[in-house]
Write a structure and sequence with these properties.
The protein has helices at about 1-10, 15-30, 60-65, 80, 90-95, 150-155, 155-175, 200-210, 210-215, 255-265, 305-320, and strands at about 35-40, 45-50, 100-105, 115-120, 125-130, 135-140, 180-185, 185-190, 215-225, 225-235, 245, 250, 275-280, 290, 300. Helix 1 (about 1-10) crosses helix 5 (about 90-95), helix 2 runs parallel beside helix 7 and helix 7 (about 155-175) packs antiparallel against helix 8. It folds into two domains: about 1-190, 2-Layer Sandwich (Heat Shock Protein 90); about 210-320, Ribosomal Protein S5, domain 2 (2-Layer Sandwich). A hairpin with a 6-residue loop joins strand 3 (about 100-105) and strand 4. By secondary structure, it is α+β, with helices and mostly antiparallel strands. The protein binds adenosine-5'-diphosphate and magnesium ion (MG). Magnesium ion binds near residues 22, 25, 26 and 86.
Length: about 325
């Protein structure tokens, strides 16, 4: 069982930041509105994600650590309509096969909290009582300790932490209603309070910098069932790498979207320059496949042309109105 999970881990678990991504997405799926991420030594030594979500019942803990166990999908038909972030049911099993992972949790109304750990070649799960508030904590110690080849590919502590930091920023922009804390070696590096409603600019400033906000252009466009909203900076020159895009709440690095944005910015950009943006595309779940890549960064739109042209036009209109 461990070997099969390790093979799967090869696809999903590239580096500490990919572990953080899977764990934080699980917390969001569990309805948490406060998530704390603790990192030691760039994630080489420890990755800990603690949330105040719904928790996992004692009887479900063993299942949560086994491969292809997901509580989020009842049948194959659900795959199309799935809206939760994780659905393949292999993140925890994969990560626990290449690290020393402890899953601790407590559900509302439960009198005790339990910790689960999978050990040995057969990944046998051991349960023990622990003290834990309602919610879940996943601790990942010594990532890749048993896969020396992968361990060798880990970069310096600083580099790995930079990837985690960037990931947390991306998540911070995707769910402004969730409070996030990121610590490295015990020091608070990022702290985003939960926001609701109309003061979203506060988090935008915290994540993207006040400069991005000073030259901001807000847009909100609808065409048929498509909606594009968010912000474009009128000073893209100063922010070459501020490009955040979300499709139905998921972070995406998508070629089609990038292309549409470039087209909209058109002659405004010099060679090698990029526009700065934070954009949210919303469309019916049955018009998009999100399962294209295991790391889930890419999407496939059923009507790619329609989506591309809608984004390009919405942005071009907004830019034209701004008189840029
Ligand atoms: P997936 O997210 O694809 O379902 P995972 O391996 O990431 O697969 O998680 C397995 C299962 O464990 C989830 O379906 C969920 O039921 C449970 N789980 C994992 N993390 C959490 C969490 N932070 N809070 C509550 N339940 C969780
Ligand atoms: Mg998951």
């Amino acid at each position: 069982a461990r070997l099969a999970n390790q093979i799967a881990a090869g696809e999903v678990v590239e580096r500490p930041a990919s572990v953080v991504k899977e764990l934080v997405e699980n917390s969001i799926d569990a309805g948490a509105n406060r998530i704390e991420v603790d990192i030691e030594k760039g994630g080489h030594r420890l990755i800990r994600v603690r949330d105040n979500g719904g928790g996992i019942a004692k009887e479900e803990l063993t299942l949560a650590l086994s491969r292809h166990a997901t509580s989020k999908i009842a049948s194959l038909d659900d795959l199309e309509a799935i809206m939760s972030l994780g659905f393949r049911g292999e993140a925890l099993a994969s990560v626990s096969s290449v690290s020393r992972l402890t899953l601790s949790s407590r559900t509302e109304g439960a009198s005790e909290a339990w910790a689960a750990q999978a050990e040995g070649r057969d990944m046998e799960v051991k349960l023990s009582p622990v003290a834990h508030p309602v919610g879940t904590t996943v601790e990942v110690h010594d990532l890749f300790f048993n896969t020396p080849a992968r361990r060798k590919f880990l970069k310096a502590e600083k580099t790995e932490f930079a990837h985690i930091d960037e990931l947390v920023r991306r998540i911070a922009l995707s769910r402004m209603d969730v409070a996030l804390v990121l610590r490295h070696n015990g020091k608070v590096m990022r702290q985003y309070p939960a926001l609701r409603g109309d003061n979203l600019d506060a988090r935008l400033g915290a994540v993207c910098g006040q400069d991005f906000c000073r030259h901001l252009l807000a847009l909100d466009n609808q065409h048929q069932a498509l909606r594009l909203w968010g912000w474009v900076s009128e000073a893209p020159r100063n922010h070459p790498d501020l490009q955040y895009c979300y499709v139905n709440g998921r972070m995406m690095k998508d070629k089609l979207i990038n292309h549409a944005v470039r087209e909209a910015f058109g002659g405004r950009l010099a060679e090698g320059q990029h526009g700065a943006y934070v954009l949210y595309l919303e469309l019916p779940a049955n018009q998009v496949d999100v399962n294209v890549h295991p790391a889930k960064h890419e999407v496939r739109f059923h009507d790619a042309r329609l989506v591309h042209d809608f984004i390009a036009r919405a942005l071009a209109d907004a830019l034209a109105q701004s008189g840029l």
